[in-house]
Known about the structure:
Elements: E1 4-17, E2 27-40, E3 44-48, H1 55-62, E4 70-75, E5 78-79, H2 85-92, E6 95-98, H3 112-123, H4 129-143, H5 159-171, E7 177-181, H6 189-206, E8 209-214, E9 226-231, E10 234-240, H7 241-246, H8 251-258, H9 265-270, H10 301-305, E11 311-313, E12 316-318, H11 323-328
Amino acid sequence: MSEPILSVRELxxxxxxxxxxxxxxxxxxxxxxxxxxxxxxxxxLGVVGESGCGKSTLARAVMALAPVTSGxxxxxxxxxxxxxxxxxxxxxxxxxxxFQDPLASLDPRMTVGQIIAEPLRSFxxxxxxxxxxSQVLEMMRHVGLLPGQINRYPHEFSGGQAQRIGIARALILxxxxxxxxxxxxxxxxxxxxxxxxxxxxxxxxxxxSLLFIAHDLASVRHISHRMMVLYLGKVMELAxxxxxxxxPRHPYTQSLIQAIPVADPRRARxxxxxxLSGELPSPIAPPSGCVFRTRCPYAIERCAQEVPALxxxxxxxxxxxxxxxxxxxxx
Length: 331
């Protein structure tokens, strides 16, 4: 892998919650709990896991939009978590975000042209109106919007078109890194594929690095070079996308893959999707040892006593005490 453009080291984001009653002890919600990864130039790292596993909090912490309790977010040699407001603002043009709900992320009082141009007005206030409009029209072309739509309002667009507006707004500054916070989860299946293909094309055209967050592995398989599996704010597995699908090492990763619906009806009858049993524990009171042990079919006493380290196994990094034994079992 080439030199990383973004490095995250032992990132933790905890939220202190009020206790019960007047004298209740304060509780701590561990949303992100010791996450580390590198993102190379031109690479897509898919981040997957169930709702409540800390994916969106991780995205916001990387962008310094959520508090960082400890750890580092290194971009171009700078720790974003420690920058003052002025220097952080300077760096924001290099890291942009695409939000989950396209319509909710767009100001209904602004036209398409005003929405896409807003970052330009913020970072380049001296830019002329003509130049700004020229750049907006050019970016609209890149994302598949028509010039005649520049004066329309968000409510006049479908969800897929609205997400194209959000993508244009994120790319108008030509950032190095784009955080995609579940950008297709609110869209229809056919539109999801269009948006994922658009992002892949834009990545190739502009040399973008993408942090692509999704709750299921199927949404990120096509676009991701590597994938990171989160559970209760911790990394369970990190490997290439091909390796994750070919030989998943962690029981949680295996469960997520088994839960993917099969498109072929005949194959689906013989290989039905299997939903993961049990409920996600509370991040306020996570299980001791391995946080996945309460839902893991392989859990042993050691899993309750010792937190598994993220270690190399084959071409993967996996946090499981029994990874070698599980990998050697017949499928």
